[in-house]
Amino acid sequence: MFKKTRWILTLLYLGAIMGTLAMAFLLPDNLKALVLVMLAVQIIAYYLYTFSFVPFGRKIIKKFC
C-alpha cells in the first residue's frame, strides 16, 4: 500500500474516502448532492489504485488518459 510507486494513488484514494465521509456528515441537507460528486471521485480513485497493482497497469492508465 505504501510502496514508493503507489503512495500518490494511496493518498488520493484515502483522501477521497475521508472527503466523502466528511461531506456526508458535515454538509447541510441542501448540499448533499456534492456527496454524489465525491462518490464519483472515490470510485475513480479506487480504480486507479486497483490498476496500480496490475502489471503495466499504470502504463495502461497513462495511455488512456
Description:
- This protein is mainly α.
- It has one domain.
- It is 72% helix and 0% strand.
- The chain is built from three helices and no strands.
- Helix 1 packs antiparallel against helix 2 (33-51).
- The longest helix is centred in the N-terminal third of the chain and has 20 residues, at 7-26.
- The protein is elongated and about 45 Å long.
- It starts with 6 loop residues before the first helix and ends with a helix.
- The mean pLDDT is 86.
Summarize the structure.
This protein is mainly alpha-helical and 65 residues long. The protein has helices spanning 7-26, 33-51, 57-64. The two termini are 23 Å apart.
In percent, how much strand structure appears in the residues? Answer: under 5%
The computed structural class is: mainly alpha
C-alpha termini separation: 23 Å
* Count of discrete domains: 1
Classify the oligomer.
single chain
Largest sheet: none
Quick tags:
3 helices; 65 residues; mainly alpha; single chain
Write the layout of secondary structure elements.
Blueprint: H1 7-26, H2 33-51, H3 57-64
